[in-house]
């Protein structure tokens, strides 16, 4: 039988736990999530476990990172099932604060960033998103004071934003990225995949297919602009409404036009019906 995992909602309880474990000489890993956990999240817990003695998972659907017409109200909230899944991967503590613990009355501070948060990718379509993410992640990192925090590469721009903010704000927690977990047909695991109808789910694999094809073409010497344009056209053909599909510098997200400019990441966001999917891959020989 797997041991139950403790759930706390108060910042003081989180801090007491971390202090006690650290006093016992243990390293603390943090995995921030918005719940609706799937195997991708559980792989982040496992990644944290490899570099820390204790793993704390936060579950908080952060209202500040959703735009006015986005899915905050219907975002899946599945705390009991999430806690059970976390017990199965031996997470040590779940921090699931109520909204008033994170944004108490009178809350007046926002973390607003430039650099990777203004790369003209997600920020072009979700202009307040990264300020919401940066604010809540700064708070969670301050609250937990973990040694290391793990975030998925699935949200690649977000990962660079968080690395940047930790550096800029002298947050001592080391930020680690963990690779994207995919379904058998290549679709990146995401809590939002449950919004897809069976027909859309079948077509959704094309997002990863188009990115992989563009990466392959770039690696065989095709012009980057032509390869990304062909990928956008392929997605449009199967019914995606493409927000962006672009080749960027993997470190800075600056636009790139040649493989000689260093490591390249292909990033995309596209809607299938009412569901917006994002994905990205490295342009490298596998
Ligand atoms: O990636 C997510 O699930 C969220 O954006 C995060 C980092 C937990 C902040 O709310």
Features:
single chain, 286 residues, alpha/beta, Rossmann fold, Pantoate--beta-alanine Ligase, Chain: A,domain 2, 2 domains, 6-stranded parallel β-sheet, 3-stranded antiparallel β-sheet, 9 helices, binds pantoate
Structure description:
By secondary structure, this protein is of the alpha/beta class. It is 38% helix and 19% strand. The protein contains nine helices and nine strands. The chain has helices at 11-23, 39-51, 79-88, 99-102, 122-125, 129-144, 156-168, 198-219, 224-237; strands spanning 6-8, 28-33, 54-59, 93-95, 148-152, 174-178, 241-249, 264-272, 275-283. The strands form two sheets. A six-stranded parallel sheet has the order 1-4-3-2-5-6, with helices on both faces. Strands 7-8-9 form a three-stranded antiparallel sheet, covered by helices on one side. The structure holds pantoate (PAF). The site of pantoate has 10 residues, from strand 2 and helix 6.
How many H/I helical runs?
9
**Helical amount among residues, as a percent range?**
25-40%
Average predicted confidence as pLDDT: 97
* Number of strand segments: 9
Choose one word for the global shape. globular
The name of the CATH superfamily of the largest domain reads HUPs
Q: Which value, in Å, is the CA radius of gyration?
A: 19 Å
Order of helices and strands: EHEHEHEHHHEHEHHEEE
The CATH class of the largest domain: Alpha Beta
CATH names the topology of the largest domain as Rossmann fold
Strand order of the largest sheet: 1-4-3-2-5-6
Structural class designation: alpha/beta
Number of discrete domains? 2
User: What is the makeup of the main sheet?
Assistant: 6 strands, parallel
Which segments are poorly predicted (pLDDT under 50) over 5 or more consecutive residues?
Answer: none
CATH architect. name of the largest domain: 3-Layer(aba) Sandwich
Distance between the termini: 39 Å
Strand content range: 15-25%
Ligand inventory reads: pantoate
């Amino acid at each position: 039988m797997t041991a139950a995992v403790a759930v706390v909602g108060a910042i003081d309880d989180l801090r007491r736990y971390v202090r006690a474990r650290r006093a016992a000489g243990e390293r603390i890993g943090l995995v921030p999530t918005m719940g609706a956990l799937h195997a991708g999240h559980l792989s982040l817990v496992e990644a944290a476990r490899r570099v820390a003695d204790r793993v704390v998972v936060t579950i908080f659907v952060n209202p500040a990172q959703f735009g006015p017409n986005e899915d905050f109200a219907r975002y899946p909230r599945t705390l009991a099932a999430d806690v059970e899944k976390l017990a199965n991967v031996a997470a040590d503590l779940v921090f699931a604060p109520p909204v008033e613990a994170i944004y108490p009355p009178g809350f007046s501070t926002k973390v607003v960033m430039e650099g990777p948060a203004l790369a003209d990718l997600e920020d072009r379509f979700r202009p307040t998103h990264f300020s919401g993410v940066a604010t809540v992640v700064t708070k969670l990192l301050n609250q937990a004071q973990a040694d290391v925090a793990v975030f998925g590469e699935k949200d690649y721009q977000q990962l660079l934003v968080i690395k940047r903010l930790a550096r800029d704000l002298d947050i001592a927690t080391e930020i680690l990225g963990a690779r994207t977990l995919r379904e058998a047909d290549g679709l990146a695991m995401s809590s939002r995949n449950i919004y897809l109808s069976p027909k859309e789910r079948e077509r959704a694999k094309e997002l990863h297919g188009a990115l992989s094809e563009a990466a392959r073409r770039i690696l065989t010497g095709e012009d980057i602009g032509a390869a990304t344009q062909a990928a956008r056209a392929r997605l449009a053909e199967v019914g995606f409404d493409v927000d962006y599909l672009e080749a960027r510098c993997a470190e800075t997200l600056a636009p790139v036009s040649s493989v000689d400019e260093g490591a390249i990441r292909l990033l995309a966001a596209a809607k299938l019906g009412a569901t917006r999917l994002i994905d990205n891959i490295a342009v490298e020989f596998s």
